[in-house]
């Protein structure tokens, strides 16, 4: 999968599909991972002497590094006696350049909020009523 | 494998871990929707039955009964996990509230700046984040990050001269 990074736009549309997929299924998980993209074919890996000289070299790289974002679902296999179906693993990944991080995460939050519809909604009404009651009671 | 009570704590500790190990640490977030286990359904059913049988207190009954009606209701959680395979550190936070998702992904975004090795302070401040001895409390945060006190254990891990950013009031 390493070579098939999607563009950010495509990643978002596929991620929306992934959430939709899990929503339709009714249950299941969506995994989102982020890490520094440290594997770079264009530059030589840091030499061992460099690491020895400065063990913390990776805490202050010369240039900002891109961030790798991955998303996947759970694969499952059919099993008798349960309603489990054969589901293929869907894996998505994209690379976000440092200067695009803010824009990316703004959209990421939108997609995430829309996709995670199963979580508990805030119950404003109830709290307000409770508070009023307390005040009235005292 | 600490499981934090608040997302603020999780964010603070994760940012320290990322400062210390920006290359190896990763953040995995999992959104999972599960059918409740048989025992969970049983428990809920029991609870509902108890509710039904108990004499209802006059005013609250209408609202209280709306909170849980279906014992088969799905369990949805959103889990954030920062893991560093080199040191074996794993920091977790779990929630089931939709209202938190936006904020949590926002903090994922801020943490990604550590990964990208960008200064964590907003660009428009135009001040170098490192070496600005008196770091001003301008982390572009919802204002909740500095509430809890820094834990000494993780500070040591962060090493280097980067502790300044923390522990200010």
UniProtKB/TrEMBL annotation, chain A:
One cellular-component annotation, GO: signal recognition particle, endoplasmic reticulum targeting
Q: Which residue intervals are annotated with compositional bias (Basic residues) in the record?
A: 119-138
Kindly indicate where the leader peptide sits in this chain: none
Spell out the molecular function terms from Gene Ontology. 7S RNA binding; endoplasmic reticulum signal peptide binding
The reply to whether Ribonucleoprotein figures as a keyword in the UniProt entry is yes
Gene Ontology BP term (one): SRP-dependent cotranslational protein targeting to membrane
Compositional bias of kind Basic and acidic residues: 51-61, 80-89
Give the location in the cell: Cytoplasm
Residue ranges, annotated region (Disordered) = 36-89, 115-138
Record's keyword annotation contains Acetylation: no
Any Pfam family from its record, for instance, is SRP14
Query: Which Gene3D superfamilies does the record associate with it?
Result: Signal recognition particle alu RNA binding heterodimer, srp9/1
Report keywords, A-Z: Cytoplasm, Ribonucleoprotein, RNA-binding, Signal recognition particle
Q: What is its main location?
A: cytoplasm
Q: What does this protein do?
A: Component of the signal recognition particle (SRP) complex, a ribonucleoprotein complex that mediates the cotranslational targeting of secretory and membrane proteins to the endoplasmic reticulum (ER).
Subunit structure, as described in the record = Component of a fungal signal recognition particle (SRP) complex that consists of a 7SL RNA molecule (scR1) and at least six protein subunits: SRP72, SRP68, SRP54, SEC65, SRP21 and SRP14.
Family, as annotated? Belongs to the SRP14 family.
What is the name listed in the Swiss-Prot or TrEMBL entry for this protein? Signal recognition particle subunit SRP14
Q: Which organism is it from?
A: Lophiotrema nucula
TrEMBL record, chain B:
Q: Which GO terms describe its cellular component?
A: signal recognition particle, endoplasmic reticulum targeting
Task: Share an example GO biological-process annotation for this protein.
Answer: SRP-dependent cotranslational protein targeting to membrane
* Entry-linked Pfam families: SRP9-21 (PF05486)
Ranges of Polar residues composition bias in the record: 59-70
What are the SRP9 domain coordinates in residue numbering?
5-115
Region listing for Disordered, in residue ranges: 38-71, 128-169
| Top-rank taxon | Eukaryota
- Residue spans of biased composition, Basic residues class: 160-169
| Basic and acidic residues bias: start-end ranges | 46-55
InterPro entries according to UniProt: SRP9-like, SRP9_dom
What is the protein's given name? Signal recognition particle 9 kDa protein-domain-containing protein
- Species annotation: Lophiotrema nucula
